[in-house]
Amino acid sequence: MRSGEVFMTQAELADVIAARAPAKVNLYLHVLGRRADGYHLLDSLVVFAGEGDRVEAAAAEDLRLAVSGPFGADVPAGEDNLVLRAARALAAATGQPARGAIRLEKQLPVASGIGGGSADAAAVLRALVKLWNVSLADGELAGIALGLGADVPMCLHGRPVFVGGIGEDIAEAPALPACALVLANPRIPLPTPQVFRGRTGPFSASGRFEATPRDAAALAELLARRGNDLTAAAIALVPEVATVLDALSTTPGVLLARMSGSGATCFGLCADLPAAQAAAGVLADQHPGWWIAAADIVA
Questions:
Q1: Which residue is catalytic, options 43, 53, 151, 229?
Q2: How many domains, the chain?
Q3: Nearest alpha-carbon partner for 28 in 247, 200, 221, 201
Q4: What are the distances in angstroms from CA 293 to CA 254, 265, 273, 283?
Q5: Residue 3 lies in a domain
Q6: In this structure, are residues 50 and 299 in contact, taking their beta carbons and an 8 Å threshold?
């Protein structure tokens, strides 16, 4: 969008569909193997934080995208933008013309291991299904999502899930106890393919469990027996990841510190939102250049 151009007319603004794009957090991430095509087989417990991007969509005569927010300048532009690709994929699957004025407020850092782009794509799919008034079975929408990227189906789900395969195998997780997260990122992008290429060592076993931990401390104890198999590779590429993990692990109120996804965002598990907010304040004072946020886990 060019500077000074009117993005939405008053008529378009009258019927705006909004959708949240929450941060995806891997409480643990095990690499179980590797397929012949090079894709890794994963096992992960994924939750979604009450911190994220925001998408709005309104009717328009063409397809257009405006991006704002503190990380808006970092969003890739052009025809390969994942939000625009999601809109076109949904239009092609439903026989709709690819039309809509889409606005993305980018609050999450890019290439940071918390699924920002995938969450945005999932949010656009949800918003456009409503805007275009199309009917799709869950499996059909999930298939469109998978065609956009391995993380998009889980982001479309938006609740705590176990994720397997390359991201397409999604199963409900047990109910989790009340808890919250403090998220920290050193503002250094870390592209996922580079991290997977750098992973070495044996493959892991599944870490899934069935019983609901009694509280946040029990969840932290359970997660401590699991891990993130991409951490070493991420640290080799961005040593600051280790600094973030060390800072989180020594912050009062943090029960467990771990990297999410392929990094560089790390999280601290806390008993509740006030504890996470207090931890975020301590970290912000010590590391003013980092992106830091406290959030509940979306149930």
A1: 151
A2: 2
A3: 221
A4: 14, 11, 11, 10
A5: no
A6: no
Instruction: State the 10-residue block means of pLDDT for the chain, 299 residues long.
Output: 45 78 98 94 97 97 96 88 97 95 96 95 97 89 93 94 94 96 97 95 97 97 98 98 98 98 98 98 98 95
Q: What is the DSSP string of 109-130?
A: PSSSSS-HHHHHHHHHHHHHHH
Query: Does the pTM exceed 0.90?
Result: yes
Tell me, yes or no, whether 146 lies in a domain: yes
- Residue 2 covered by a domain: no
Q: What is the dihedral of CA 119, 69, 191, 280, to 10 degrees?
A: -90
Both tokens of 191, joined, read: 């592209």
The pair of three-digit structure tokens given for residue 128, joined into one six-digit string: 């456009």
Same domain, 44 and 160: yes
- 3-state class (DSSP) for residue 173: coil
In angstroms, the Cα distances linking 270 to 19, 51, 112, 136, 266 are: 27, 15, 21, 38, 13
Centroid of chain to Cα 199: 21
Interacting residues of 148 by C-beta distance below 8 A, sequence separation 6+: 82, 85, 86, 89, 118, 121
Give catalytic status of residue 24 as yes or no.
yes
State both tokens at 222. 């359970």
Same domain, 39 and 17: yes
Catalytic residue among 24, 43, 53, 229: 24
Omega before 275 within 30 of 0, i.e. cis? no
Per the CB < 8 A criterion, the answer to whether 195 and 204 are in contact is no
DSSP letters spanning 14-80? TTEEEEEEEEEEEEEEEEEEE-TTSPEEEEEEEEEEEEEEEEEEE--SSEEEEEESTTGGGS--STT
Rounded-to-integer distance, Cα 158 and Cα 180, Å? 16
* Structural element, H or E, at residue 180: strand 180-185
